[in-house]
Amino acid sequence: MEPIQWSRWMSVGIDDLDEDHRTLIGIVNKLSDDANRQDPALIEAILDELIAYTRHHFAAEEACMQRSNYPTFAAHKALHDALTRQVEAYRDGFVANRAGISGEEVFDFCAAWLGKHILKEDTRFGEYAGSAVREPAELIG
After folding, report:
1. What residues in the chain have per-residue pLDDT under 70?
2. pTM metric for this prediction
């Protein structure tokens, strides 16, 4: 399977958040390796790592949004909460039915989940932050 490739279209223009997104892509890309997709214990560990790093990233992104008075912060935070629950439920489903969910399916789910959120939601915040009077470094704090 082809790994996710970072592109400038994914950039939100805030270095720390972009680096977090690259890290998340790196975690998901572990599932692009054929051997990793064949090992249910490793798939579960990768899902756990994805969940843990996602929580860290969402907290940082939300703090940045609050500091910049992002007008749709509440809706974006609700989306983060829903996305976290979604990937946790997916992980729980995988643990309960390892034989019924292939490594390819897990990779496809995670890649779509992450790509959709970055490209659709986070880039909107990047556009807002880029048009704000503050410099992006000030938004990070």
Report:
1. 132-141
2. 0.86
